[in-house]
Amino acid sequence: MDLRAIFMGLAFALMWSSAFTSARIIVASAPPLMALSLRFLISGLLAVLIARALGQSWRLTPAQWRATILFGICQNALYLGLNFVAMQTVEASLAAIIASTMPLLVALAGWLVFSEKVRPLGLAGLIAGVIGVALIMGARMQGGVDLFGVLLCGIGVVSLTVATLAVRGASSGGNVLMIVGLQMLIGSVALAIPAFALEEPVITPSWTLLAAFVYTTLVPGLAATVVWFLLVGRIGAVKAATFHFLNPFFGVAIAALLLGEKLGPLDIVGVAIIAGGILAVQLSKQHKVEA
User: Fold this and answer.
1) How confident is the model over 198-207, as pLDDT tens digits?
2) Of 20, 107, 148, 240, which residue is the least packed, with the fewest Cβ within 10 Å?
3) Alpha helices for the chain (secondary structure H)
4) Distance of alpha carbon 244 from alpha carbon 10, whole angstroms
5) DSSP state at residue 219
6) Contact in structure between 199 and 97 (CB atoms under 8 Å)
7) Rounded to 5 degrees, what are φ and ψ at 49?
8) CA–CA separation, 236 and 94 (whole Å)
């Protein structure tokens, strides 16, 4: 793994983790689904226009279209939509921690659904991840966490897991920026339907809301997605996924710094254990590929 790949991986992890804090700011002042649908509309149009200017085509292969639609619905509409709704009552740090378990769920799905062999290091990582989540949830439940919001985050991370399994099909064959834009437009349309059916367009305008919306549209929404696809294309999905072990740390650190969210001792221990579990799972996959 070269220095450029390391820089890309760190940048992706930081941008991805910051999305929970900016989302928490947005949903405090605007309808979550409407805001997210608008974000995807703007990000998607920007990505498609830039892609066309670079000569990329929206004439995708049937396999690319299937994966692009699946990714747009599962990640952009379901995962992020459910998280935006949940973060009206769930802290950004907890939402980030739950979302960070995605690599563990991918490994678990590979073991249970696809009968993939799990090395002892990977199994230890899965067990560590479960322990870390149990510690954090136990501490948060004692503090009166909103269980419905946690459930929405849980369903969202399962949707993200499904989307992740489709990344390789969506990113193969070039047209990366075009594919990213089309995924976002699909997510925008999928979210617009429940948004107009269920939400009232009541917004409390402020400079903080505007800054958070612009940031989440351009940085986690567009830049992080492009960097992820480029990183996967550069070093492969298995090695790229190793950087997910940084997400629990970055997620809680940014929320604590910008939102003042408090972290207890069990939260810190749990985050460390989850991060170690994610790293162990990804390292075990790398060893398997190299073997």
Assistant:
1) 999 899 999 9
2) 148
3) 3-27, 32-53, 62-71, 80-86, 92-99, 102-112, 120-142, 147-165, 167-171, 176-198, 207-218, 224-235, 237-241, 247-259, 265-290
4) 9
5) I
6) no
7) -65, -45
8) 29
Quick one: how far is CA 263 from the chain centroid? 21
Structure tokens given for 210: 């505007």
Q: Are 75 and 187 in contact (CB under 8 A)?
A: yes
- The span from the CA of 135 to the CA of 138, in Å, is 5
> DSSP readout, 144-198?
T--HHHHHHHHHHHHHHHHHHHTHHHHHTTS-HHHHHHHHHHHHHHHHHHHHHHH
Give pLDDT, residue 10.
92
Residue for token pair 């949903």:
27
pLDDT in tens, 144-199: 788 899 999 999 999 888 877 765 545 555 677 888 889 899 999 999 999 999 99
Could you tell me the pTM of the whole model?
Answer: 0.85
Which segments in the chain show pLDDT lower than 50? Answer: 169, 291
Measured at the CA of 248, the angle between CA 229 and CA 207, to 5 degrees, comes to: 80
Per-residue model confidence (pLDDT) at position 134: 86
